[in-house]
Amino acid sequence: MRLLVFLAIVVLGGAGGDIAISHAMKQIGEVEILRPSTIMQAILRAFRIGWLWIGLALMTVAFFSLLALLSWADVSVVVPATALTYVAAALGGKFLLHEDVAPVRWAGVVLVCLGVALLSL
Question: For the stretch 68-102, what's the b/e string if a residue is b when 16 or more beta carbons lie within 10 angstroms of its beta carbon?
Fold first, then answer.
C-alpha cells in the first residue's frame, strides 16, 4: 500500500508540476530575442508568477517521494511505473491547459500504459 501511495505522489506530483510550470511559462510568452537582458527579464517575470512556485513545489515533493520509493523498492519496479507521469501529463495538458493532443500522442499514451502493465506482471 505504501508503494502505491508514494508512486501516486511521484506520478501526480511530477505531472502536476510540469503542468503548473507550463501554465506559468505560457503566461510569460515566448522570448524572441535571445540576449542576456531579455532572458533575465523573462526569468524575473517567471519568479513573480505563483504557478511557477506551485510547479516547483510539486516537483520537489515528487522527487523526494521518488527517493523514498527507491530506498525500499526495486528500481525495476519503480522506474517503469513512473512512466505513468507521461499519461497524467497528457491528460492534464488536454483537460487543464486545453491543449490539442494529436491522435498519435494518445497512441503513445496507450503504449506507455501497456508497457507499464506488461512490466508489472
Answer: ebeeebeeeebebbbebbbbbbbebbeeeeeeeee
Distance CA 6, CA 119 (A): 18
* Number of residues in the chain: 121
For the chain, what are the domain ranges? 2-120
Cβ-based burial of 107 (10 A; exposed 0-12, middle 13-18, buried ≥19): exposed
Using alpha carbons, list the distances in angstroms from residue 88 to 15, 37, 58, 74.
6, 36, 14, 23
d(CA 95, CA 81): 22
Q: What is the pLDDT along the chain (121 residues), one digit of tens a residue?
A: 899 999 999 999 999 999 999 999 999 988 888 899 999 999 999 999 999 999 999 999 999 999 999 999 999 889 888 988 999 999 999 999 999 999 999 999 999 889 888 887 7
- The pTM score is 0.88
